[in-house]
Design a protein that fits this description.
The protein is of the alpha/beta class. The chain has two domains: 154 residues, Rossmann fold (3-Layer(aba) Sandwich); 47 residues, no CATH class. Helices cover 32% and strands 16% of the residues. The chain has nine helices and twelve strands. A six-stranded parallel sheet has the order 5-4-3-6-7-8, sandwiched between helices. A two-stranded antiparallel sheet has the order 1-2. Strand 9, helix 9 and strand 10 form a beta-alpha-beta unit. Keywords: Oxidoreductase. Pfam families: ADH_zinc_N. This is 15-oxoprostaglandin 13-reductase. Its EC number is 1.3.1.48. GO terms for molecular function: 15-oxoprostaglandin 13-reductase [NAD(P)+] activity; zinc ion binding.
Length: 274
């Protein structure tokens, strides 16, 4: 929320804004107006459209080079950014596959248009892809890493693109990044298919944030985009509404794999942060 604005600023005192660079958790932050993104309100769903929605939208367009009729695989599809990747790929005219870890998440994925949700704890992802998609997958939106990464590389189609947006398997490791097992064979696997592995980091595309955010907000307001938030109702500690004190509980809840959509931590004064 803007508490003071310069005479040449485009913002007004009391206006809700978002800031996603260094120091975003500060109680107060002095910043140039160019670094602030105007929000329609402090509604949690609008905040979720920021980091998670922008990552999916910009990544699929700029790095994924998505084309109508392609087959797209989204890993961790019921998560904060996966939910948007599923919906945006479907709206682009693609066939969408999504991985998840529970039957409840399977139902959620179907509700947002996922053509083939896969509970990887009950089905072997590699076998499903090999059997049901023998020509391979055109685009993979990958955020898990480790064995999931290897499986996705193996199932790429000719000229397929695998986009790394994260590697949650490495985040949880006490010893650092969990290496991919098939790293030594990666070059020939890519070469023989003219395939590619690409990385995406949202902070490298700041010039597109406002344009894409306005587009996502319009879609959400029109009912064309679901922005699922998880406030921790199903966690063992209850709703995350104690501000910074709730963040450790929210992170632990994220690692349980039970969350659905984007986890939101609410502050006592009513502000929301991711």
């Amino acid at each position: 929320m803007v508490v003071a604005a310069g005479v040449e600023s485009n913002f007004k005192v009391g206006q809700p804004v978002a800031y996603m660079l260094s120091g975003a958790f500060s109680e107060y932050k002095v910043l140039p107006s160019s670094s602030a993104i105007p929000l329609p309100s402090l509604k949690a769903e609008y905040i979720t459209l920021l980091g998670s929605g922008l990552t999916a939208a910009i990544c699929l367009d700029e790095v994924g080079e998505l084309k109508k009729g392609e087959t797209v695989l989204v890993t961790a599809a019921a998560g904060g950014t996966g939910q948007f990747a599923v919906q945006l790929a479907k709206k682009a005219g693609c066939h969408v596959i999504g991985t998840c870890s529970t039957d409840t998440k399977m139902e959620f994925l179907r509700s947002i248009g996922c053509d083939r949700p896969i509970n990887y704890k009950k089905e072997d992802l590699n076998e499903v892809l090999k059997t049901e998609y023998p020509k391979g997958v055109d685009v993979v939106y990958e955020s898990v890493g480790a064995q999931m990464f290897d499986t996705c590389v193996n199932r790429l189609a000719l000229k397929g693109r695998l986009i790394v947006i994260g590697f949650i398997a490495g985040y949880k490791s006490d010893t650092g990044y969990t290496p991919i097992r098939g790293g030594a064979t990666l070059p020939p696997k890519l070469l023989t298919k003219s395939a590619s592995v690409r990385g995406f980091l949202l902070s490298h595309y700041t010039d597109l944030w406002v344009e894409y955010y306005q587009r996502l907000v319009s879609m959400y307001n029109a009912g064309d985009l679901v922005s699922q938030v998880d406030r921790g109702e199903a966690s063992g500690t209850g709703v995350f509404n104690k501000g910074l004190q709730s963040i450790p509980d929210a992170v632990e809840y994220l690692y349980t794999g039970q969350s659905k959509g984007k986890i939101i931590v609410e502050f006592p004064e009513g502000n929301s942060k991711l």
